[in-house]
């Protein structure tokens, strides 16, 4: 078992946050250490964290990496050291059973990161379209992108909320839905296409100047 697997099996995100001085209340909320947070906007669960203000999101290793300015590998080593995990000692039966039970959870967590990243990017894009392409007058025919934003923004926001605040069952449901019939891959491809179109548009504007 490598240091990443050992750390993720043995230490949860809330334990690490509290160990490193972040006070988490009974609702899982805390002041975010990644920006000047005056009102608790950080949500800390056992297997992930998310800031509703600055958008920081990840697992226990991501949290430690960001908090201390370390690479992911160095963050994992720091966690192992700070929590007294000995890498040279093979896991006992209880730890191994815990690892086996969480193997599927880790796979889901990796998929969850991919789903969250794509959905959050799409959500921000739809928010921009709601503003940029809103009709200027009641008589103006709505732009296709404005219509798309109207149709999908609330649903995408709902999916993002489930990945952030939902329980394990709800998050798994979102992940399974996104993985079915290549939905995630299609969304990622669509977002890349939109980025290319945006860059091409910017180049045309610069050339026109």
UniProtKB/TrEMBL annotation:
<dbReference type="Pfam" id="PF01807">
    <property type="entry name" value="Zn_ribbon_DnaG"/>
</dbReference>
<protein>
    <submittedName>
        <fullName>CHC2 zinc finger domain-containing protein</fullName>
    </submittedName>
</protein>
<dbReference type="InterPro" id="IPR002694">
    <property type="entry name" value="Znf_CHC2"/>
</dbReference>
<dbReference type="InterPro" id="IPR036977">
    <property type="entry name" value="DNA_primase_Znf_CHC2"/>
</dbReference>
<feature type="domain" description="Zinc finger CHC2-type">
    <location>
        <begin position="29"/>
        <end position="80"/>
    </location>
</feature>
<keyword id="KW-0863">Zinc-finger</keyword>
<keyword id="KW-0862">Zinc</keyword>
<dbReference type="InterPro" id="IPR050219">
    <property type="entry name" value="DnaG_primase"/>
</dbReference>
<keyword id="KW-0479">Metal-binding</keyword>
């Amino acid at each position: 078992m490598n240091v990443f697997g050992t750390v993720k099996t043995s230490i949860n995100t809330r334990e690490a946050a509290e160990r490193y001085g972040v006070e988490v209340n009974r609702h899982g909320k805390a002041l975010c250490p990644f920006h000047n947070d005056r009102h608790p906007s950080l949500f800390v669960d056992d297997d992930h964290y998310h800031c509703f203000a600055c958008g920081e999101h990840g697992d226990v290793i991501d949290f430690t990496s960001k908090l201390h300015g370390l690479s992911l590998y160095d963050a994992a080593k720091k966690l192992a050291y700070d929590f007294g995990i000995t890498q040279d000692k093979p896991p006992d039966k209880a730890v191994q059973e815990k690892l086996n039970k969480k193997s599927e959870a880790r796979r889901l967590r990796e998929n969850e990161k991919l789903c969250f990243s794509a959905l959050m990017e799409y959500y921000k894009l739809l928010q921009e379209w709601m503003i940029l392409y809103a009709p200027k007058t009641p008589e103006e025919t709505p732009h296709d992108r404005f219509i798309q934003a109207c149709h999908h923004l609330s649903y995408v926001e709902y999916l993002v909320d489930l990945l952030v605040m939902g329980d394990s069952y709800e998050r798994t449901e979102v992940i399974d839905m996104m993985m079915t019939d290549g939905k995630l891959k299609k969304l990622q491809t669509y977002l890349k296409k939109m980025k290319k179109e945006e860059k091409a548009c910017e180049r045309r504007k610069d050339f026109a100047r």
